[in-house]
Amino acid sequence: MDENLVDYYAELLYDYHFLKQPLQKADAIFVLGSHDPSVADYAVELYKEGWANYIIFSGGVVRPVGELRNQTPKSEADAFFDIAVKAGVPADVIILDNEATNTGENFSCTRKVLKEKGFDFQNFILVQKPYMVRRTYATALVQFSEFKFISTAKPDSYAQYIARCIENNISKERVISNMTGDLQRLKIYPEKGFLAAMEIPENVWDAYEKLIFMGFEGRMAN
């Protein structure tokens, strides 16, 4: 397999997925669950820079030992909590949702937690992996439409992000398969009402089909 060609197609998907929106101050930094600990690291950066006074970690999927730098199996939210507190974020500004198991539930379960705890947040910074920024935003347009929000991630290039993932024991193959899976969801989920339709450029879809042909199809939706 020609790795240069793989990277060429993968970077097209990465740049499309990484919707760029300017940061704006918010009531809370809302972090959606992930297998990538750098998502929590970036939320900590934003908090320390003063973009919001609270952090929400949403994710009930239990990750195995080591996957999120955890020493015991933990939910994404709990593992992210540990990362943030270790980095100096006060525990009392962190809100946890340990029930969500997918992107739609990140929004519905977090809405429920905020209501139960009496928080009246109206403005959010949504944080995810770079290649999930667009899908997070498209989902929020449907599932979180009553609020104001922007969607963002640590501003890595494709090469920088792959290198960061490898440092965290996440393979390039896994990242690319996740990116093709996310593009498929952007294509088919609007008709299911899960997210808002996003225009997909022809060259991006062509790159997707090339990567699928090469075998990067490990995370397709049914």
UniProtKB/TrEMBL annotation:
Residues 27-143 form the DUF218 domain. InterPro entries: Cell_Envelope_Assoc, DUF218, Rossmann-like_a/b/a_fold. It comes from the Bacteria. One of its GO terms (cellular component) is plasma membrane. This is DUF218 domain-containing protein. It comes from Emticicia aquatilis.
